[in-house]
Design a protein that fits this description.
This protein folds into three domains: about 1-40, no CATH class; about 45-140, no CATH class; about 145-230. It has helices at about 10-20, 45-55, 60-70, 85-100, 115-120, 125-140, 150-160, 165-180, 185-195, 200-215, and strands spanning about 25-30, 35. By secondary structure, it is mainly alpha-helical. Helix 7 (about 150-160) crosses helix 9 (about 185-195) and helix 8 (about 165-180) crosses helix 9. Strands 1-2 form a two-stranded antiparallel ribbon.
């Protein structure tokens, strides 16, 4: 019995490699009798990248909404995932929650009603629960064997808003600041609030000045806590 020659050209084979198409993937027969591999597209790649851009642009609700719609079971993870896209999604949602004060209620019309109880918070206690998840998520996705000033800065920022974690947050943020490793204006703002709470007016002003030099939006650097009437 004669073996039918493949109609897949060397050019297409090279293209398939470039696109990451597995040779063992399911194949479908084309109209002309050739065999063509099915292309499996993971839309999360583009979705997570877009959410990260929204987060960087300060569109926290949009970033959180994108991640929740894409991975509605995200809060079920108890440990870091082997899937890098899941860990990136967790980081985006956690930071968005921290910078929204644990309040995503404005997403109510964008999310299915069955998700409201998991991601929306109508009380102070519920917002603290959201922030607790954010702190836990950021702690999970950090690699304990590697130094990551950005994740550490974001973790300190989230901890600063979680009742009972302010002391640990200040310790972490002060350490990073002493090594000039705080990477976000929001982290400096959090440090300013914590210094104000500790009675350090000079330190509060210094942290706010660093915040202003890093921020495109001056409103980001208005500290919620003050010792004097200065802002």
């Amino acid at each position: 019995m004669k073996t039918r020659r493949s109609l897949v050209s060397p050019v297409f084979a090279a293209l398939a490699v470039a696109l990451g198409i597995s040779a063992g993937a399911p194949r479908a027969e084309a109209c002309g009798g050739g065999w063509w591999p099915d292309v499996q597209i993971d839309y999360r790649v583009q979705g997570v990248a877009q959410a990260e851009k929204q987060l960087a642009a300060g569109r926290y609700l949009a970033a959180a909404g994108s991640v929740i719609r894409m991975t509605p079971h995200l809060r079920d993870y108890k440990t870091a995932s082997k899937d890098g896209l899941v860990n990136r999604s967790m980081r985006v949602l956690a930071v968005a929650l921290a910078r929204s004060g644990g309040d995503l209620n404005m997403l109510a019309k964008e999310l299915p009603s069955e998700l409201h109880g998991r991601f929306l918070a109508k009380t102070s206690a519920a917002r603290q629960e959201q922030l607790a998840w954010a702190v836990g998520a950021l702690a999970m996705v950090r690699d304990p064997k590697k130094s990551d000033p950005t994740l550490d800065s974001e973790l300190g920022e989230a901890m600063a808003q979680l009742r009972g974690s302010e002391g640990k947050a200040k310790e972490l943020l002060e350490k990073l600041a002493s090594e000039d490793l705080l990477t976000t204006p929001q982290a400096y703002r959090s440090l300013a609030v914590l210094r104000a709470d500790a009675g350090d007016e000079t330190g509060r002003i210094a942290a706010l000045e660093r915040c202003k030099t890093m921020s495109k939006d001056g409103a980001t650097c208005v500290a919620a806590a003050r010792i004097s009437g200065q802002s």
